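Hey, sorry to bother you again with one of my protein questions. There's a protein on my desk that I can't quite get my head around. No rush at all, and the record is pasted right below.
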Amino acid sequence: MYQAINTHFKQQDSADQLRLSEILGAFTYALDLTEGQPAGHSIRACWIGTQLGMALGMKGDELRDVYYATLLKDLGCSSNAARVSEMFVGDDRKLKHDFKLIGPRPEDFGEHVVSAVGVTAAADARNQALGNIAENGDAIMTEIIGTRCERGADIARQLRFSENVAQAIAHLDEHWDGGGLPLGIAGTDIHIGGRIALLAQVVDVFFTAHGKDAAIAEVRSRSGSWLDPKLCLLFEKLSAASGFWEELKLDDLPEQLFALEPAVQYIPVDEDYLDDISLAFGRVIDAKSPYTAGHSERVGLLADKIAEKLGMDDDRRRALRRAAILHDVGKLGVSSEILEKPGKLDAEEWEAMQRHAVYTTDILGRIGVMSDMAMISGSHHERLDGKGYPLGLDERSIAMETRIITVADIYDALTMDRSYRSAMPSEKAMAILQGEVGKAVDRQCFEALQNIIQQVELH
């Protein structure tokens, strides 16, 4: 599914020749995974939103803000994944996908909840969840959507976007009639970028699921309730134009979208900005689970220290640090029902968990300046003895950068709480790592980590 569009993200070798839109466009495929949407949802929504903005006469910074607000509307989506899975007792990715196809009436939501909540769970768990939703549904939905909107806005600011972009993302789930969440604001009090992004989302979700007629019908049914009626009329005119729906299916839609980036031809991304982007998406990754707060950044810092001990030069260390921060980006494509399971995974669940490494390689492989690090990040569960995943590589083909990420990742995971166990003291974690030297863990990397920990303890 992902390979066909990889070529659209291959760029020049140096970071200062990259467009910001191309780098972030590649990362949106991770957001699509988190939302359970078909690959390219964010790209298509941005294309629709940008067409609406141009039809409104927007130019320059105003149009650019709409462009990025729509492209990155789902920045906060990972922050409520575990909560969605817990409250609705199921696969958060499927639940999120199906929720977006519910009709606009409150009773539509109620009917869907009865059919979707806890369908694979034990009867008592399902009944308890249904009772909780019946009693506290409004508060639960306000919390879930509020978390997503607030986190998305915060990450947009971290990515150096204007307050207009942040506010548009914060207002994504507000409705024209005031019935949206989390603020319940109405009409033009909702940021224009948020109004456009919601319309674009509705169009693409129903178009990809059921076709153009369903998308048009859904916009009409939500006009004046969920959606700004003037924007809906404008959309109808645009969608009647020759080629509108055909363009949404084009393989080169990403290239066409990036060519539409407003205000300037491209925004250069220097090394510092690329670091900030990596950190921002590291926080998107870690928000997927309540047990992984700060994990990506800590693995990046620890990998950098190990690399320094091993004499790696500054440029190589910088690339490694980004690869380490982003090593788990593929976990955005794994259900929280699996990630948060307190017991042992069954064979099917374990297979789904292993796919996160493949997703990591695919996502980073789309970004030219990071493509050399894609396999390095995605191989962090390979083992020197050939018994790792996903490819079963052995010591002959596992790069030193990967070996560094592996030992940093294992150490941090062992010393932090997880759903299935409490955090271990450093001494116990190091004993486990020592037992894996030559099998999963490189000796040089282990000794460098040991030296780092001893220095910290001495101070």
